[in-house]
């Protein structure tokens, strides 16, 4: 089902239209080239057949599905009233900084990280510090000494991305517990972007929502989730925050319409179908992505000048190109017909992010182009 080549050109695809008319394989922005689960397509077709698309409230069944999902996957007991529906996780990041901090307060953000995490602080604007991620035993993790040095009396908010984008780390319970203890010690709130929580590539791996560690930790956390990456329905427009503390929830969600629009009725429909009937499709997708990851990993491992850590989650590989000796690695690959995300967007100019969420045949062609680019740089 995932091998079927789908032509996304001339569909107003952000990813594919960027290089329209050029011989470029676009493997940058984080959606996949896979059709959504059949249950999602069927549910959307039924909704369209109804023919009326007026203002729509969040379905009670979707709330129930989210509550049940948190319990089943993470043994995390949440209440329906903790859930705040939103049009997307990105807008929620900006809202969180604006509504949970004052202009005089300070934000901590990991680096590298998905760029909207730190841009949320930039545009608020708030003072913020990039706390470096470091490689330890082949995983990107927080530099905890640097984190301790970065906190100030004005620090109010800690931004977390778990699983980490672009590093692909699934933080362990112990790592998250240390981070939560740090936050409690300094009375920090945590905004945790967990949009990739279902895309765990290791069969033995397990995502742990930081808010699920204890009721005390949950009181200081805004957890952001969405089925959009998992089921390739990002265009449907639906995400949610899970916020236990009522004061924090009110501060975050007060009069949302002044800031963002409601989640889409199509987003509600797609999410409910995905959560109710998408489990088998998701397992198959993870198996497919695992093979894609391994093909990419093997290619990078045998080429000079590039390297990557073992990717535990997501379909986004973070590749170090510093050994190639080129000023702009993204431009190098583009010149060889491969459109990757530039590392500079994430705070690391010598890296590129490679989206391998595509059909195997297309990936194999992309890997040939990747190798040609690397060899050309070494010539």
CATH arch. level architecture of the largest domain: 3-Layer(aba) Sandwich
What is the H-and-E element order?
HEHHEHEHEEHEHEHEEHHHEHEEH
The CATH first-level class of the largest domain comes to Alpha Beta
CA-based shape: globular
What's the arrangement of strands in the largest beta sheet? 2-9-8-7-6-3-4-5
Query: How large a portion of the residues is in β-strands, by DSSP E?
Result: 15-25%
Rg over CA atoms, rounded to whole Å, is 20 Å
In DSSP terms (H or I, runs of 4 or more residues), the helix count works out at 13
Q: Report the sheet with the most strands, covering strand number, pairing sense and barrel closure.
A: 8 strands, mixed
Helical percentage: 25-40%
Q: How many domains make up the coordinates?
A: 2
Provide mean pLDDT, rounded.
Answer: 97
Measured between the Cα atoms of the first and last residue, the distance is 40 Å
CATH-wise, what's the superfamily of the largest domain? Type I PLP-dependent aspartate aminotransferase-like (Major domain)
Instruction: Please mark out the parts with pLDDT under 50 across 5 or more consecutive residues, or reply none.
Output: none
